[in-house]
Each structure stands twice: as C-alpha cells, then as structure tokens.
Amino acid sequence: MKALQFSATGDLNALSFIDVPTPVPGADEVLVKIQAAGLNPSDVKNVLGRFPYTTLPRIPGRDFAGVVVEGPQALVGREVWGTGRDLGFFADGSHAQYLTVSAKGVAHKPTHLSFAQAASLGVPYTTAWDALERSGVGKGTRLMVIGANGAVGSAALALAKIRGARVLAAVRRVEQVEVLQAQGFEAITLAKPQDLGSQVNAVFAGGADVIFDTTGFWLPAAVAGLAAFGRIAIIAAPVDGHVQLPALALYRKGGSVVGINSLLYSCEQCAVMLEQFGRFFDEGLLPLPVGLREVALAEGTQCYEDVNQGSADKIIFLP
Q: Could you read off the pLDDT of 128-171 as tens digits, one per residue?
C-alpha cells in the first residue's frame, strides 16, 4: 500500500511517500480501508521530533474515516471513524491506504458526515468534549471560550450549546466577533490581559464558571474573570511551558486549573467519545464541517510543510 512514513525526526524531509506492506489485523483488531485522514498540527510536530516517545519507523496520522474490510464479522463493511494517542506514535497511523486498530477503537461514522468531514473532527472534537466534561460544563454553566474561532474552540462552542451552557466567545479580531454573532453566539474582542476580568464580568456578573483557554496565552489573566469555585481549562502553554500564575487570587476564589491533553486517550477511549457526540451530527444539532482542503495522499509531504509554515487550512488526505 501507499503511505507517508518517517524513519527519523527533526526534519520534514524525513517524511516520504512510499510503498509499505499492507498491515494484517491481529486478534480483536480490524483492518480499515482509509477513505479520508485528517492532518493535525500534532502530526507535523511528531515528524519534527516534539514527541520523544514516538517509535520509528512510523506512519503518522491520528484522525481517520473509512470502511472496515477485515475483522469481526459484525464490523466488516461498516463505515467508521476514529482517533487516538497510539496512532502515529506507538502504532502506524492513518496517513496511508489501510490501518489496523483495535475493534473497540472505531466508532460508527455519523451518516450525515462525509468521510472527509468525519476525518476532520477527531482531535478537535474529542479535545473539546474532554474539556467540557472534565471542567463540569452543563446546563446553565457560564462558559467563556478563548480562541473560539479555532478548531477546538469552535467545537467547544457547538458542544456547549447542546449541553445548555451560556456561552461567551472571545476572539482577537472584530470581524471574527461578527461571524460568531451571526452564528448566534455572544462574542467579545479580546483586549489587554489586565482587562480580561472586567470584560468577563461585564457579561457574566460575578465571573465565569468555566474559562476554556485554547491559546495558551490567557491563563494568568483568566483568574480575574472566574466566579467562585470556577475552573480554567487549558490545552496549550507558552513555548517554554511556564506561566506566572496569581495563586493567591486563584485559591481565594476556590478556583482550579484543568489540563486537557488528547494524547492521554487511547483509540478505544476516543471511540467512546465519538459515539457519545457523533449522534448529534445526525440529529442536526452540530454544524457540518465546511471549507475543507481535500488533497491526494501523494501530495502529503508538501501539505506537512504548508502546516509547518502556518497554513490554517484544514487538510484532509484522500488515499
């Protein structure tokens, strides 16, 4: 089969489009014929050596959608989607024509999603779902999402709306505010960090119950915007990994910080999440992805370079 593979890290030139043996599923595994596979920034960072636990040689790629062609008879022929920490790190990933994965590591693909659409959602939606679950977002929760125009932020808005939360979207630019308002969300333009507390309190009197920072920049400032016993969920940090946290203000509010890392979850654990929120696409409660850039897998090495150079396109490989 054709696949993208790297045998060394540190340079995207190590990634090649080559022929490799088609994998053979083991006991309790399925062989999935990949119809579409998403390219995430973490896939690029993986080739660049940011994840020292990756074993080599390795086919990268975490998100996929396809058809089961071998495995338990009940699953053969099923349209499935999946994602998980193992793929591309400890086991070969989805940037190939075929993939083997645990039979419990695939979820039924929502019928309203095309293969390409399903392949674009794994990492962003499981990350957002985990953030809302672990920070206790439910009916009536006052939630602020910082970086609400990004993939994870957009997923968090949509999922929080289904949960009945009151949502405030925070973005950098006025035109982004206008787009979010047109979608029915309350939105503000982020100002200076020292102004964040007053901005939040102007909308949520007494502060937000949960602030989800998807950018890695606003954690210290977010403390001023918390309500009593509030939670700040984070998925990113500055380059050096450190921030100066106003601990006195945080503990006086009974506040807490919740770290969210999608790489803590196996394919089987992610499949449970996908089943839980996947039905909302078929029920018309979640927006269908648009604006995807569908690319032949043979052009994959250039796409990795595009993402590394800052491209915001959501790239989907079609093997």
A: 999 999 999 999 999 999 999 999 999 999 999 999 999 999 99
Report CA-CA distances (Å) from 109 to 61, 113, 165: 18, 7, 26
Is residue 239 pLDDT above 90, yes or no? no
Q: DSSP characters for the chain?
A: -EEEEESS-S-GGGEEEEE-PPP---TTEEEEEEEEEE--HHHHHHHTT--TT--SSB-----EEEEEEESSTTTTT-EEEE--SSBTTTB--SSBSEEEEEGGG-EEPPTTS-HHHHHTTHHHHHHHHHHHHHTT--TT-EEEEETTTSHHHHHHHHHHHHHT-EEEEEESSHHHHHHHHHTT-EEEE---GGGHHHHHHHHSTT-EEEEEESSSS-HHHHGGGEEEEEEEEES---TTS-----HHHHHHTT-EEEE--GGGS-HHHHHHHHHHHHHHHHTT-SPPP---EEEEGGGHHHHHHHHHTT----EEEE-
Taken in order 283, 286, 292, 297, the sign of the CA dihedral is negative
| 73-91 pLDDT per residue, tens | 999 999 999 999 999 999 9
| CA-based nearest residue to 37, from 302, 292, 307 | 292
Cα gap 105→266, rounded to integer Å: 8
> Chain centroid to CA 16: how far?
25
The arrangement of strands across the sheet holding 256-259 comes to 186-189, 166-171, 142-146, 208-213, 226-234, 256-259
- Cα–Cα distance, 291 to 202 (Å, whole number): 34
Rounded Cα gap, residues 134 and 31, in angstroms: 32
SS3 assignment for 255-306: CEEEECCHHHCCHHHHHHHHHHHHHHHHCCCCCCCCCCEEEEHHHHHHHHHH
